[in-house]
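U., I forgot to send this yesterday:
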Amino acid sequence: METPHIDDLQDTIVEPDPSRAIHSLQKRYLYRADILDVYPRDIELVSKIAYEGSVGSLNMAGAIALDIAARPNLTSDQQLEWLVYASDIWKIAVDDARQRGIVDIHSIGAATGLATLPSYFDIIYNQRIPDIDSQRSMYEKLCGLAIDAQRLRKNSGRRGDIPTTLRAAGIASELSVLLLHQRFVLHNLGDTSQMVALPSRISEDNWLRNKDQETTVSNGWDVSIMTKYPDDQSPVLAYKVQVKTSQNADDKSPDYASDIVKVNVAQDLIVTEQERKRGRVLVRTIPAECYAELSGNAARVTIKKLNKRTEKLLDVLG
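Result:
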């Protein structure tokens, strides 16, 4: 395959973002000949997205870079190139959002990517489950991001921004499941842990891409729980988890493949009498409980509730 030259791609991409850092990253990672020899179309696609320069486009470019890194037919050097690119482009997105005082769906997505990338680096490049210290660091960062998502949901709701409200609620719910599972790992498995929960990659989470058009069965999911068995050379996907937020979410959602476990946060994780009477767990509840415990401010009853929710989640996972 002939290696495309950078000049050959100029007509296929939009004008580069004026930021020198972004432009430098494009040249450094997107136009390396060894990568282009393997994935010229991928490079072109990521170029189109990243060159747009917004926090949303950079978040998407980082997610695609991670997804490419996970492909099984890449060499270790190619995996490293894409993982480093994902890291750098997400850092630019997060820094840009911070400098402009923006907390939105895209900035939370990029920050989540950065928080979980060390774990994906271990799984993809080192072919191992991240150690407990790395998982603890990830848990702390995800806890803060879940609070950010909840605040975004609340503020956008006050403004009447329904699409953002719903998306933020979905993010908070997905992070709630991640937090409960990681809390279980940290509290119960410790240094011997060979399990980690992560947000699914973009190709795994894309509902339209993973939808079987003939049977209307979706193969997309939100949370990947990885494990490594003694005889395995690398971690394997143990659970595919689809997270639902509202009480009636199951009525509106498509059917899912038999190997995907659905967790309805509003209904499956109810533990108090008040929640039973209300018929749901509020979106803010689990992030707030995890944050209180992490901050050392949780009452004993809060810790008991978290323990019960964790047990319920494990029961749903089976």
